[in-house]
Design a protein that fits this description.
Layout (H helix, E strand, L loop, with lengths): L10 H14 L15 H11 L7 H14 L3 E5 L2 H11 L7 E5 L4 H9 L3 E5 L10 H11 E4 L2 E4 L6 E5 L10 H11 L2 E5 L7 E2 L2 E2 L6 E5 L12 E5 L2 H11 L23 H35 L2 E2 L6 E2 L5 E4 L3 H13 L5 E2 L19 H7 L2 E4 L8 H4 L2
Parallel strand pairs: 2-3, 2-6, 6-7, 7-10
Antiparallel strand pairs: 1-11, 4-5, 8-9, 8-13, 10-11, 12-14, 14-16, 15-16
Helix pairs in contact: 1-9, 2-9, 3-9, 4-5, 4-8, 6-7
């Protein structure tokens, strides 16, 4: 770093930037970039040669099956992006206009937007400081203090609205305490829809994230481990929910060789075959990418341990995908100084998202105070987490 153009940061953080350079080399270093070192070109050219470039094509079904199989789910339904997958999953789960969905305020905007698309309103509970994901203890406290049962419905005592679902998010690919959350959803009669946008390749024990709830939604945006340029996949073990999700996301058109009959209002959320071809090739490289990213994370973890920095590590018994590595600094001033200095040096670092409860469209939603989430917003910084150029050869093995 150039001290003449950057704020002064502690020696450990300056050394961290040097370590990032050791991993990724000279030049501007992005936060997370896609890697196309396998069959991506061949599979997309095959699509072009076949003329099946839109939503009709064999690669769509192949991609759906590959994602579902990797996650250990019975069914996969491809969508045009992760937000569409979240929205459709909520609709299929039975979330209706006027309902409420319990979620976390420390998340990407798509989580709350999908709830809004379904006509529902989010309710925010706090996160655990180690997982950065929904806290089951906070969820229980809020449900016990703020809800009542009306038959088979859980109702918000303050608003009178049905609380239809719970949507936790596995932040940066770190599994939240999803088994405990699933048990609470069963106890209170809530449908569990997992936001797995960031956690393809993340496990609790031997069980993949996204298989603890009724449905889950993965994202394949350009900055994810596996990308289709833009895309999403809903996974579920329920055959009827899978059938309905596929029907709704393909404009609710009844199958017919030539007639066009749509039996309800559906969504044009179809994933093009070209995008799916990218995804099939990316899924082939996923195990190797996960192994490489675990090694990068280990370098960061070892560096932080040796220099008195706090690295965000997944809880024991879980395996994260290391999508985005993160550190926790002392306060907002330290966070901002490091962000400015590292980015000025050509190393992209990023703060965690602003809390959803502080955005104008969600500012009036109920929350439990969000003490941990507020503390984390002032301190969390993401570090570059791509597969390094020097490791590309392992993806072709």
């Amino acid at each position: 770093m150039n001290p003449a153009s950057s704020p002064v940061v502690p020696a450990a953080l300056a050394a961290l930037v040097d370590t990032i350079r050791d991993i990724y080399g000279a030049g501007p270093i992005p936060l997370h970039r896609p890697v196309f070192e396998g069959n991506e070109r061949a599979y997309t050219v095959d699509c072009i040669d076949s003329n099946f470039v839109s939503s009709v094509g064999a690669r769509v079904a192949e991609f759906e099956a590959a994602v579902a199989a990797f996650a250990g789910a019975a069914h996969g339904i491809a969508t045009v992006n992760g937000s569409a997958a979240l929205h459709a999953a909520l609709v299929v789960a039975g979330v209706e206009r006027g309902d409420e969905v319990v979620t976390q305020a420390l998340t990407f905007i798509a989580t709350c937007n999908a709830i809004s698309y379904a006509g529902a309103r989010p309710v925010f509970v706090d996160v655990d400081p180690d997982t950065l994901g929904m806290s089951p203890a906070a969820l229980r406290r809020w449900l016990e203090a703020n809800t009542r049962r009306e038959g088979d419905r859980t109702v918000n005592a303050a608003t009178g609205a049905r609380i239809a679902a719970c949507m936790p998010m596995h932040t940066f690919g770190i599994p939240c305490r999803i088994a405990e959350i699933a048990a609470l959803c069963d106890e209170f009669g809530l449908v569990l829809v997992e936001d797995t946008a960031e956690s393809l390749g993340s496990f609790v024990g031997a069980r993949h994230t996204g298989t603890f709830g009724t449905l889950a939604a993965f994202s394949f945006n350009g900055n994810k481990i596996v990308t289709t340029g833009g895309g999403g996949v809903i996974v579920t073990d329920d055959a009827e929910l899978a059938r309905r999700a596929k029907h709704l996301t393909t404009t609710a058109k009844r199958p017919h060789p030539y007639e066009f009959f749509h039996d309800e209002i559906g969504f044009n959320y179809r994933l093009p075959n070209l995008n799916a071809a990218l995804g099939v090739a990316q899924m082939e490289a996923l195990p190797a990418m996960l192994a490489i990213k675990a090694e990068v994370a280990a370098r960061y973890r070892d560096f932080c341990a040796a220099h008195g920095l706090r690295f965000v590590a997944a809880p024991e018994g879980t395996t994260p995908n290391h999508w985005l590595n993160a550190i926790i600094l002392d306060d907002r001033a330290a966070r901002d100084a490091f962000l400015e200095a590292s980015n000025a040096a050509g190393v992209m670092t990023r703060p965690i998202w602003q809390l959803m409860s502080e955005l104008p469209m969600y500012a009036d939603c109920q929350n439990d105070g969000l003490d941990n989430a507020r503390w984390l917003v002032d301190r969390v910084v993401n570090l570059p987490s791509s597969v390094p150029d020097s490791e590309f050869g392992r993806l072709k093995a």
